[in-house]
Design brief:
Helix content: 25-40%
Low-confidence stretches: 1-33
CATH topology of the largest domain: TIM Barrel
Number of helices: 16
Shape: globular
Oligomer: single chain
Number of strands: 19
Strand order of the largest sheet: 10-11-14-15-16-17-18-19
Largest sheet: 8 strands, parallel, barrel
CATH superfamily of the largest domain: Glycosidases
Bound molecules: ligand TNX
Length: about 525
Amino acid sequence: MRVLRRALGTLLALGAAISCTAAHGDDARPHAGRAPAPAPYERLLPRPASARAEGAPYAFGAGTVIRTGTSAPEEVRRVGELLAEQLRGPSGLPLPVVEGEEGGGIRLRLERGAGELGAEGYRLTTTPAGVTLTARTPAGLFHAGQTLRQLLPVRGPGGVPGGTVTDVPRFAYRGAMVDVARHFFPVEQVKRYVDQLAQYKINTLHVHLTDDQGWRLAADSWPRLAEYGGAGEVGGGPGGHWTKEEYRDLVAYAAERYVEVVPEIDMPGHVNAALASYGELTCDGKAPERYTGTKVGFSSLCVGKERTYEFIDQVLGELAELTPGRYLHIGGDEARATPAADYAAFMDRAQQVVARHGKTVVAWHQLASARPAPGAVLQYWGHDRTAAAEKAAVVAAGKAGHPVILSPADRAYLDMKYDAATKPGLAWAGYVPVQRSYSWDPGSYLAGLPESAVLGVEAPLWTETIATRADWELMAFPRVLGLAELGWSPASALDWPAYRLRLAAQAPRLTAQHIPYYRAPEVPWE
Ligand code: TNX
């Protein structure tokens, strides 16, 4: 009976898919008072470099297998297993992962010679015989799988419409940041976010691990940082910290989803939790109280003390050892309690420490006005009203070879309120409605900064006002999807009127994943 019901479901879903495909171009299924829903290949988000609906669909059903090649590397099998896991729940199908080249189903093909697909690109081809995912790398196969998920119905088995997608990202760095320092969040919630983000091809998770209000990662060399400095948060809650094991587990979980973790230890400012834990880090040797407010710019490491450099060397050393990724983020923002000359001197040494531990520096863009070391990456968080001289320093650094990550606060900051009615959030950079957060072009955003200097985009979520999963996800969704598209899709695809329809079509998916997204009024939600 169950099998029969499933088969019937397949047929019905297939019918719907075919009619969508047939309607492609002049989709004429009007909803009352709403724009027509885009056909499957047109509602992919982020929009692919190219997608064409063509030919008959593949019926995805009880017999469907996920097929890796006979001599495929273990990693491809893992990608297949993860894809199977992601598809089994929604489809209710068994989807075994099998080896072998011949036969139908979903085929994962690693084609090392497919240079045009780059490090993350892929091709997806659907015919009645099956769906073939081709990529030069396992990462590309993973992204192809995420596209396939979007071509299938949100629930139940169904049909994948015939067609081809050929897709490569515009930018290498497509990030989201979460601040677990102002309010503590357990690794489980961050993993959930990784799953949510990876399905939209975000490939970097920046974790802001330390700030005035809390130190969230254990360090063996300085145990009181987490034990004492982590036991608090904004508003006076208990706070908490991650053990090294939990952090390793998060990093591995993210890596399986092709998300690289960039850990941040913010310095020389934003360090009250560290100073409260170890009085020897302050210039007068006295530890301040722990802090539970939301002011910024009042704390500083003691730049003239040698102990400061032993501290950062040991802490960054442990972090580098725990982190397989390329980057260590050393903050460097809002160091208002550090005189400019001291700031530059401190950042010189901090950058040397990072290099000595074999990592590449990322810092907030204030480093541009000091002395960024060769190769250091700058993260721009200015906004429309940022002083011209500050922008010019970032543009000059970008032209001199420093890759720039764009996180403009009045577009990309997920902690800015959508509008006056948003309960959580801040508004120092203005309100950021969904349309505004999407409507800018990273390649031409900073006047004078060539697109080749833009490493990518990142959407930070600061948590001074965000203490629950529900508020976190309400602020991130749907804006983070727009950032995902700005990072991935070609400039020619960026178009608000079309994007809002693609976004609207994601609603059933977000709902099925229990994501309490904000139903922005400018989007005709399905
Ligand atoms: C600015 S962005 C900060 C953070 C705050 C955030 C709140 C940046 C590098 N510094 O310390 O949490 O604004 O929106």
